[in-house]
Amino acid sequence: MATYLFLLSQEHPEIPAAEARAVLNAENIDYRVKEQEDSMLFVESDDIKAEAVDRLAMTFEVAEVLHRFKPDQYQKLAAKPLSVDGSFAVRKEYLDDTEAPDELERNVGRIIDKNTDGHVNLNAPDTLFRVYLYDDTAYLSRIVADIDRSSYEQRKNQFRPFSSPVSLHPRLAHALVNLSEVPCDGTLLDPFCGTGGILLEAALIGCDVHGLDIQDEMVNGSRKNLEAFNVEGDIRKGNVEDVNDIFDDALPVDAVVTDLPYGKASKIKDDPTDTFLELIDDLADEKTVFMTDKDDLDGYEPAFEIYVHRSLNRYVYIV
Ligand SMILES: C[S@@+](CC[C@H](N)C(=O)[O-])C[C@H]1O[C@@H](n2cnc3c(N)ncnc32)[C@H](O)[C@@H]1O
Fold first, then answer.
1. In this structure, what are the phi and psi dihedrals at residue 212, rounded to the nearest 5 degrees?
2. Which residues of 216-255 are buried (b: 16+ CB within 10 A; e: fewer)?
3. How much is the average pLDDT of 70-99?
4. Is the pTM of this model over 0.90?
5. Which residues contact ligand 1 via a Cβ below 6 A?
6. Architecture of domain 2-146
7. What is the per-residue pLDDT for 312?
């Protein structure tokens, strides 16, 4: 079995690793988590491909680990099995203050060049080898997926036709979708869709999305937001207490992912949390992932706590 390294973002202590596992589950990949060392999650699997993991939001890249070595003993790589066709480049990445010889990339590149059919191309390589440096160890790895995290920045509030202070950052919205383990061709409902941030992220991975909001402004705004990114969604107006009737033709969906209204930020006076909790079992065949500012919901334990500022924490529940 091969070992893969998921280079996790450290924007939250637990969610990036949980998101990685959830995506492997959603994609039906056989795997075993070997260990986690800070930002490195090591996973054993037979075959992890870019198509399966490029939906991750809180991972920078996924690489197959080929060899571990002491950074100053890179010459030993010459005796190890290595293979690559076409062009390649070697780049290094420091994950802590591990020291490495100045010319490490060039020297590892020479060894690969000499011992394989590959040839160096630093500008547009077919294969990128990464040498991760951590805890006085070097990990020679082949990049499997280099995740384009800049696309999340391009979908932030200020780049959408409709925005509101309630909008989630696209990366968080995307991670919540992934935590639900919804497959790319699955169906998803956000019954408090607001500006459509969760729906947008789910639609972009290929899901069939349904949204509900009690405010006209949000319904129209989220429709515009999805349209602006060329994805489709079925967004209807109404109160969550009527969700079963309103989405009679669409329920149950595979997954429900939502961000409940927060007391202070919400224009709506009646807190719909209890109504939503009563409905949970009817809505999704698989998982429901919801975020709220409450950590004391009867019968539910939050999976993650997200610090927002001194007087606001958010809690993510996975049911
Ligand atoms: C926290 S916001 C959702 C924000 C959203 N995740 C986004 O990124 O824009 C909660 C939404 O729930 C809606 N809402 C409040 N009470 C509702 C109810 N009873 N039924 C349906 N929607 C409701 C509000 O109008 C608001 O848009």
1. -135, 140
2. eebbebbbebbeebebebbbeeeebeebeebbeebbbbbb
3. 96
4. yes
5. 166-168, 173, 192, 194-195, 197-198, 212-215, 218, 239-240, 259, 261-262, 266, 268, 272
6. 2-Layer Sandwich (3.30)
7. 87
